[in-house]
From TrEMBL:
Descriptive protein name: Uncharacterized protein
Region annotation Disordered: where it falls in the sequence: 84-104
Taxonomic lineage of the native organism: Eukaryota, Sar, Alveolata, Dinophyceae, Suessiales
Polar residues composition bias: residue spans: 91-101
Protein origin, superkingdom: Eukaryota
Amino acid sequence: MSGQAEMDAAKVLEQCISGEVTEANALPQLLHLHRSNSKAVVAALSEKANAVVQQADAGAAATRAGSFLITVATFLDRENFKAAAADPRPSGNSKGAQKSKVSAPVEEVCRPLLDHILLLSGGKNRAAKDK
């Protein structure tokens, strides 16, 4: 299942980067995929970040792709934060008859993506990861 979700996320990212799908259509699809399997979406974003770093000499195209990846990560974190803030947690009901479905917390996206990009590009006192 994880492989299929990662493939779906990678496909949506690729379609949007290539211009086949608008950003307005891709972001909700990625949000849905992220809520069902967050690790697969983060993995797909990391793979696209690899491609952007490897093809950085492409100029404007690489800049647009990198900017889109950051937009996706920011959108996912913002929407998940809004959903978590709007989710009323059940306050102890004495009757116990009413139970609400509480979804598991969804992983953050920006931080793992930033960590991955830092790994690729190097940082203070360390060299960039080899291609």
